TrEMBL record:
This is Adenine DNA glycosylase. One of its GO terms (biological process) is mismatch repair. Its cofactor is [4Fe-4S] cluster. One of its GO terms (molecular function) is 4 iron, 4 sulfur cluster binding.
Length: 349
């Protein structure tokens, strides 16, 4: 209880004023937690406000077209979160009359809701004594207790969850859970922790043993994969070709230009000879120009995309296109959004 008391003491004096902390509405808490998965608060907060304004209730979100939801999500990345968000909203609205499950066991069954998110909603909304463990909690616990088990290993996940349970204030799990996460985010930071003024500097193992920089331990990920994208912007009379991306890879459900992916950087003459290029152009007459001399490097967690945009002015499009004045209404990856902001005339923005 001593650790929880210190965390609460710090939290009540230092916590940030965030909109979802003023509510116990499970819809708002759930929405905030999904948005903040793999996203910092400063980036996620504007999106939370946009979603609450556009969809004040779970019914509003459930009734919205997926395309509209993806467009509002644009720029946050990890778009499977948005698709899961929409599916769960439809389930809660249509199958549960808008009522979210009221305990961890029910919440964790929802699509896109894992252990951490279910624990957060259950403790924040319903006072259920379940411990949250996120990146901030891993860092705080590993440093205070000197735990060197890798946080992304099966033994580590189990050990840290048990440790989080041991120190949980079961009388007030909501405040405790928010306190330890906030403490990790604002005070026990990854690279610049404020150890001199820390409420745990008398008992922190990492501080005593000079291991602040070494903890938490994380197993290194596999090597980042390089991919080479060649987007074809087929343009005729201010109309261009857009197509919906499908499959289980990145950006499923978003729109993009016709794509030729190659195993290495490619020059114009070689690009035009590829079978995929010939299939896309479908015999139409065109002139081609490379929009960006240097590839745009778009970095994702597990892969880096080296992207060239090829402008093809066609006499006719091979199939129906989208007006330049409409293209910004479509949900697209931020990589393509950035290109459009450069490519489109001001009248179309």
């Amino acid at each position: 209880m001593e650790i929880s008391n210190r965390l609460t003491y710090w939290y009540l004096r230092n916590k940030r004023d965030l909109p979802w902390r003023k509510s116990q509405d499970p819809y708002q808490i759930w929405l905030s937690e999904i948005i903040l998965q793999q996203t910092q608060i400063k980036q996620g907060l504007p999106y939370f406000n946009k979603f609450i304004e556009a969809y004040p209730s779970v019914f509003d979100l459930a009734n919205a077209p997926l395309e509209e939801v993806l467009k509002l999500w644009q720029g946050l990345g990890y778009y499977s979160r948005a698709r899961n968000l929409h599916e769960t909203a439809k389930f809660v609205a249509n199958e549960s009359d808008g009522v979210f499950p009221e305990d961890y066991k029910g919440l964790v069954k929802l699509k896109g809701v894992g252990d951490y998110t279910a624990s957060a909603i259950a403790s924040f909304c319903y006072g259920e004594p379940v411990a949250v463990v996120d990146g901030n909690v891993y860092r705080v616990l590993s440093r205070i207790f000197g735990v060197e088990t890798p946080i992304n290993s099966t033994p580590g996940i189990k050990e840290f969850k048990n440790l989080a349970r041991e120190i949980l204030n079961k009388e007030d799990p909501a405040t405790h859970n928010q306190a330890i996460m906030e403490f990790g985010a604002m005070h026990c930071k990854p690279k610049t922790p404020e150890c001199d003024s820390c409420v745990f500097n008398d008992k922190c193992v990492a501080l005593k043993e000079n291991k602040i920089k070494e903890l938490p331990v994380k197993i290194k990920k596999a090597k980042v994969k390089k991919r080479y994208f060649n987007y074809l912007i087929l343009n005729s009379e201010d109309r261009i070709i857009l197509e919906r991306r499908s499959g289980k890879g990145i950006w499923n459900g978003l729109f993009q230009f016709p794509l030729v992916e190659t195993e290495e950087p490619i020059k114009e003459e070689h690009l035009m000879k590829t079978e995929k290029f010939q299939k896309i152009i479908d015999g139409q007459k065109y002139t081609v120009e490379l929009f960006n001399d240097k590839p745009v490097v778009h970095k994702l967690s597990h892969q880096h995309l080296y992207t060239k945009f090829w402008i093809l002015d066609c006499k006719e499009l091979p199939h129906e296109g989208v007006g330049l004045d409409e293209v910004l209404n479509y949900p697209v990856p931020v990589l393509i959004e950035n290109f459009l902001n450069e490519y489109l005339p001001d009248d179309y923005k």
